[in-house]
């Protein structure tokens, strides 16, 4: 909807005459304008105060944006990055945004939803192939033009993009990936997460992680599975993989597109390439090695149905058992995801076959999806014939890389107020207790000094990503496990003993709690208290606090 210009709005910028407002967001204001030949254009005036570094990045990205296939995006016509009013002029798309469409007419169904999924995945693949990260993919940035969906507002450099959550993350909270909430730079994998959240919104008419408050939404993004009940199968399974907490578990946009049109040779094992690449100059460039072997099995059923979502191919080492921060438990730990600094292209089938020797996962039938998107495929046939081969055959594509370990295998960090403990040697348990690690003799079970019910308040770091909690732990001497609970959230789980540390001064345990966040817990004696430290598998968040014993 076009609204009148306000008194302080410019009436012209360069050769473009402005006639009204199309919208306003965190980056700036979008105006309806007209070129000298009378063609309508969209003119986005960026917020003032961009520092020189951001302006230089903006200029580079605008050059790259001109190389993005225009049939699925709004073509960039010109841009001015200097002066008090930097602006970008792009093709005007005559149609509502996806957000406006859903608000006015409700969720999309059938072929309409499937055309949206294919069209926006095609746009995202083209954007990433040009070396650009969208950074703010959401329903408001998908325009439903007369010739299909167009993705707009991509690749614009942001002021303070590397700032933490306390300074304001980039993007709309309901569509931010966990790594963005944790203050890390947006990557192609972040865009894929936002795509999944956008399709879930289109199918259900509501945000996949809710929309009640920023803090609550961010907490759910970091800790719970999305609500995908309104997304039909098999699209639900695809969307669920895109919403994996660990970016290395998400498909690349190119693989996502191939899976949607049924062309992926093995879409459920297409690899974790989305997390292996970033924008030009990405500070996390380069390949890094993983720590663990094959992926863990989920402790309970996959809410998306079908094979476990965390089972991509192991091309280049990405996804080789690297755990992710989500409701399904996993073993091991991972540090900050590594990005190659290339353009989001994954390894090809040869690389995946070389690295992955496990039996192939069962193939899911996609007949319903293929029938529904037949019209979309036909409409895109001419352009896709040009675009998709280029995306597939690009020999310069990036390679998946695995996150570095956030700690050495076997190292445990104790409470900040306590010395760093060290593990004692562990041996497999006997007498049928093969599922839990134990140590020989007295060190194999919980010492008597830890016995009792302990309660306390724990605080997250970074602050504001996840809320503070009360925690309750019940330990019994001689056992290999303990009861764990966060009463306020209704989370109840089990702590499994990994090792007794430094004699009987500390315990290293593994938390598994269906529906809640798995992680590693260290309990360290601190006078008459226990210092509690929890760390998630992806290395995004830690919790610390002191626990007091009942009685």
Brief digest:
The protein has 12 helices and 18 strands. It has helices spanning 52-65, 98-105, 110-129, 178-181, 188-204, 214-223, 235-242, 253-260, 349-355, 367-372, 374-379, 381-393; strands at residues 12-13, 16-24, 28-34, 40-46, 76-80, 87-91, 142-145, 148-151, 427-428, 437-438, 452-461, 469-475, 481-486, 491-501, 506-512, 519-526, 529-536, 542-549.
Detailed description of the structure:
The chain is of the alpha+beta class. It folds into 3 domains: 1-92, Phosphorylase Kinase, domain 1 (2-Layer Sandwich); 97-393, Orthogonal Bundle (Transferase(Phosphotransferase), domain 1); 427-549, Beta Barrel (Lipocalin). The chain contains 12 helices and 18 strands. The strands form 4 sheets. Strands 11-12-13-14-15-16-17-18 form an 8-stranded antiparallel beta barrel. The chain has a 6-stranded antiparallel beta sheet with strand order 1-2-3-4-6-5, covered by helices on one side. The protein has a two-stranded antiparallel ribbon with strand order 7-8. Helix 3 packs antiparallel against helix 8 (253-260), helix 3 packs across helix 12 (381-393) and helix 5 crosses helix 7 (235-242). The longest helix has 20 residues, at 110-129. The termini are far apart.
